[in-house]
Design goal:
Jelly Rolls; 26-stranded parallel beta sheet; 46% strand; globular
């Protein structure tokens, strides 16, 4: 009997799990068929309706069908409609929707809209409505539809509830189709007025609304179900040319007849086009508002100055764009950026120069994108800045490779907030002697990963040299740092060069943060004062957990080795303590140390929190520098702290097996004894 009850309970549990697969909007955004769709809210057009952007009006069911409602809100008495705007805009393409609703029987006051939109005069519509008293339900139009020939209507009689709707938008025609489930044509129309066909990018949208905001005649809720949506991008391999000596009256299709301005040239591009940029200095900046295009240097290194603008190259909400071989010159003006893409996918910037500015190259919430083989120098702030701060989004799969970045006033390569599944590889980062001699602004970090939720990064084969802090890590999980060369060497009296692994930064808003599951291996650390610095500030809610240092080489040449610390665990200016449970499974394995020194500025930690395995040449100095030797290993302890009552309990036992530290006060020497080092150092 108990077995039957258990099986029944298990089946019911599985049924509950299955039934909970419905997906609702999060923050007014729902993901369907590979795209993010933003839901409209408030009281606005078309036809001044109330719009609901929550799960009561829109959701995705277990079969991945999208539901859109016209619904009476019984609490407010308002009839609320639904509109979804795609994350992307397109210039040309074939857009296909499949619905599973009896659209021909919808109330005459309802409107189903499947359309592209730039503004009220640039819009392509498939709409189903009787418009209160129109006998035909299907309307195809190109706005403004008050122009004769820009609109046509057809009857809508469908045998079932499954219908396919197609809009094929090309440079020379727009073809509209409505099809039965079996492929038979219900209605179709070819629009061929080339002068009326939009040539700029338009946003893809769909809505379900009420004419004049009036309730349905039967006062009943209505539901529109969509089963599929696809986009087939228009491809045209045409190549165009641009030159500072060109003319926008040219057709731009040959080197002898180039365009002159980027604003005009880009307006002529369609998906699949390439714009070849001839050498020289151009009069205007590049605004990328088309997807699936390439802008590439053709002869020499063409220069795009920032001028009076805030960007040399700027693109937003586009995809599949390549920028290749251009030279951008900026100005040291706050929040300017030489090359800037935001909310984009599949962006590649390669073989470019970005010189003299505020930020050299910036990606804001860009996915599946590449920054490769660029030369970036002399920036007030960042060289390369890949970030999502305050966006509510995550950037994934960004590769930053083979770039030469130097002389930046903040971080030269910066991953900032919610950047995951990405790679930083083969870059060279440094300060030049000329920059230093000229009194240039010194950056905080060569490379930095910070401000939370940066996961699954691979940082490999980079060279970072002649910097204050070659690499800073704040709040990084499940990542690998390998085969890099990190060199310090710059100190200004207030900052020492270091690899900084920290649980800091007050703007991180996550319950528990820190550094988790990090592998740091096969790296060379040279001339770095605090080779590995663990640092805690501004919070008590951090962790250092499951961190492996393996086969790294520490090579330093400071005159006063006792002031150099190859491992430092500090608590920061705010005196937040590193205490029991905050550090676990920190492993040093097969590393090569020149002079391993521990500086410990915290309270006790858990036993076995820090482990040494087959690590050679460990030297831990006492206050007076007297070494202790056992089993042909030199082991001593160095304490450098002006605080009183530094040690509580028995912290040294947890660092090196067999050593016992006793409490001290002020600057009195720390008494150290040892027993058997075999367990700790073998």
């Amino acid at each position: 009997m108990k077995k039957i009850i258990f099986i029944t309970f298990l089946l019911l549990s599985l049924m509950c799990i299955t039934a909970s697969a419905t997906t609702y909007p999060v923050g007014g955004v729902i993901h369907w068929k590979g795209y993010d769709w933003t839901l409209k809210s408030g009281y606005t057009g078309p036809s001044y309706n109330y719009w609901n952007n929550t799960g009561v009006n829109c959701w995705i069911d277990d079969d991945n069908k999208l539901h859109m409602m016209i619904r009476n809100n019984t609490e407010t008495g308002n009839w609320e409609c639904t509109q979804l705007n795609n994350q992307y805009s397109w210039t040309y393409g074939t857009f296909t929707w499949e619905t599973e609703s009896q659209i021909d029987e919808f109330d005459p006051r309802t409107v189903v809209g499947l359309y592209t939109y730039k503004d009220d005069n640039h819009e392509i519509d498939i709409e189903y409505s009787n418009w209160v008293d129109e006998p035909n339900k299907t309307q195809y139009s190109v706005q403004p539809n008050t122009i004769t020939g820009n609109k046509i209507t057809y009857p809508l009689n469908i045998s079932g509830n499954k219908v396919t709707h197609i809009m094929e938008w090309k440079p020379t025609y727009i073809r509209f189709k409505t099809l039965e489930e079996n492929g038979s044509v219900i209605s179709q129309w070819n629009y061929t007025n080339i002068s009326g066909i939009p040539t700029d990018a338009e946003n893809l949208r769909m809505n379900f609304w009420l004419i004049n905001g009036l309730p349905p005649n039967n006062n009943s809720n209505h539901e529109l179900v969509l089963t599929n949506f696809t986009v087939q991008e228009y491809t045209n391999n045409q190549t165009y040319y641009i030159s500072p000596t060109g003319n926008d009256s040219n057709n731009g299709t040959k080197p002898d007849y180039p365009f002159k301005t980027f604003s005009y040239a880009i307006s002529q591009l369609v998906s699949g086009n390439t714009l070849l940029v001839e050498d020289g200095t151009y009069p205007d900046q590049i605004t990328v508002n088309k997807s699936n295009i390439t802008i590439q240097a053709y002869n020499g290194t063409p220069t795009i100055p920032i001028g009076n603008s805030t960007r040399c190259i700027y693109g937003t909400e586009v995809s599949n764009v390549i920028i290749d071989g251009l030279n951008c010159t900026g100005a040291n003006v706050t929040d300017t950026c030489n090359i800037y893409f935001r909310f984009c996918d599949n962006i590649t910037v390669k073989n470019c120069r970005s010189v003299d500015g505020y930020d050299g190259l910036r990606y804001y919430v860009c996915n599946d994108s590449i920054i490769d083989n660029n030369y970036i120098t002399n920036m007030n702030q960042h060289g390369i800045h890949n970030f999502c701060q305050n966006s509510g989004h995550t950037a994934r799969n960004v590769t930053i490779s083979r770039n030469n970045v130097s002389n930046c006033g903040h971080n030269m390569i910066d991953f900032h907030s919610n950047c995951t599944d990405s790679r930083i590889t083969g870059n060279t980062v440094f300060f030049t002697d000329e920059w230093i001699a000229a009194g240039g602004v010194f950056g905080n970090q060569g490379m930095a990963v910070h401000n939370g939720m940066c996961d699954r990064l691979l940082v490999d084969n980079n060279t970072v040299r002649h910097t204050f802090m070659p690499f800073a890590i704040n709040n990084l999980n499940d990542s690998i740092i390998r085969d890099n060369y990190f060199e310090g060497g710059l100190m200004d009296g207030s900052r020492d060069s270091q690899i900084n692994i920290a649980g800091v930064e007050s703007d991180v808003k996550v319950p528990v943060f820190g550094v988790f599951n990090l592998t740091f291996k096969n790296n060379t650390l040279y001339n770095i004062n605090d080779s590995i610095l663990f640092y805690v500030d501004n919070t008590d809610n951090f962790r250092f957990q499951d961190i492996l240092f393996e086969n790294n080489t520490f090579s330093n040449n400071y005159a006063n080795a006792y002031q150099h610390k190859e491992f430092y665990l500090g608590q920061g200016a705010q005196a937040h303590n590193v205490y029991e449970g905050r550090i676990s499974n920190l492993v040093f394995r097969d590393n090569k140390f020149n002079n391993f020194t521990i500086n410990w500025m915290s309270n006790t930690i858990s036993p076995d929190a820090i482990k040494f395995e087959n690590t050679s040449a460990i030297s831990i100095h006492t206050n007076n520098g007297i070494p202790f030797t056992q089993n042909k290993k030199t082991v001593s302890l160095y304490i450098n702290s002006s605080t009183t009552d530094v040690w509580y309990g028995d912290p040294v036992t947890y660092l090196i097996a067999g050593f016992i530290g006793t409490p001290r006060t002020g600057t009195a020497p720390l008494n150290v004894s040892y027993t058997d080092l075999t367990e700790g150092l073998s």
